[in-house]
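DM from R.C. (forwarded with permission)

"hey, sorry to bug you on a friday — could you get me a structure for this? deadline for the figure draft is monday and I only need the backbone to look sensible"
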Amino acid sequence: MKRKLIRVAASPISLDLLLKGQLNYLNGFFDVLAVASPGAEHARIRRREGVETVELEIERSISLWKDLKSLWRLFLLFRRERPWGVHSVTPKAGLLSMAAAALARVPVRVHTFTGLIFPYREGAFKFLLKQMDRLTCLFATHVIPEGEGVRRQLLAGKITGKPLEILAHGNVNGIDPDYFRRSGWRQEMRKSLELPEKAVLFVFVGRITEDKGVRELLAAFSALRAEAERAPVFLALVGWTEDCSGVDLDVPGVFRPGFQEDIRPWLEAADVFVLPSYREGFPNSLLQAGAMELPSIATDICGCNEICLLYTSPS
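My reply, with the result:
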């Protein structure tokens, strides 16, 4: 009989995108149960990964009453399922599931830090975020930083004294190079976008939010478009819009196709990938763009600079 492993994230899209294929693989060794807030992604996860899921509301923002209810529901779930291990990703899911698993006496409690928020905040909010991360590590038996940059931030912030082991070169799941490769979509995709022959297409993939540097990206793109002489420039913002009310997204020359389950045609149609993010852990999108031989421009921050070194290293 296989031991039970419960994977937890606040948002179902995190399980769907970040752990694509991983849940199915783990299910060959464990009886895997996936837990996240309600959402349409649950049906896709069950179908694609072949695992059962539980819809349990976990608020991403800080909300004391809702968080206490989520903690209690996670505790009851863990007591009922009696798993061998609980493994969480994303900050709020990590704090609540590690605490609930410790209270339910789950033997193995693992949290993967896919990025940290406190290094980019100030004052009382930064202090609060650090205490939350410290509690997550206190309740966890194993702590995994997604990359070397995240590990250094955990150490610099004195978040935990537990061993911090990075898996392979980093990243929460890796990518499949046989999937992310050029497949001859470029001309057809550019034709469907009605791009001029010599047009330069920049592409951004991710959450369209201020933390991803979308405001600066649009400002830089508008300036470049005004000065472009040899060839017209265009920008594709591929992803779902989240907390971007203060940014005018209706800019000439910008495509906004929304969330795309398959981003490969957009990467292949593009000439340059851009990621001007304020904070990252070890971004999947840069790995995907690199696998498809797409030049990338990214901010010199944790995670992004590691991937640049990974792709340019002689070894």
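R.C.: lifesaver. The radius of gyration is 20 Å.
me: no worries. The first helix runs from residue 12 to 18.
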